[in-house]
Write a structure and sequence with these properties.
5-stranded antiparallel beta sheet; alpha+beta; 5 strands
């Protein structure tokens, strides 16, 4: 069976099938939020696969895209979740 995606709680281990740079980006995002004393205990990450590339999104709108050609993870923030 092919898995098209998964969810996991903030603070839990990311799926091991993710590239290491994506796992590192997830941990960096969580670390930055912890330093800012943001309570993410009820937040989840959602992993989907688009064109065989992982896309990881956090409940606050943070998105991590993976570029396999560069083995690089790019972190961005959705405008839908910014304060006015």
């Amino acid at each position: 069976m092919i898995s098209v995606g998964t969810r996991w709680s903030s603070g839990d281990e990311p799926p091991t099938r993710l590239p290491q740079v994506v796992i590192d980006a997830v941990l960096d995002v969580e670390g930055e939020l912890a330093e800012q004393n943001v309570d993410t205990s009820m937040w989840y990450w959602t992993l989907t696969w688009l064109e065989n590339r992982p896309v990881v999104e956090f409940d606050d709108g943070t998105r991590i895209d993976y570029n396999p050609d560069l083995d690089e993870a790019t972190v961005s923030q959705s405008d839908d979740f910014t304060d006015d």
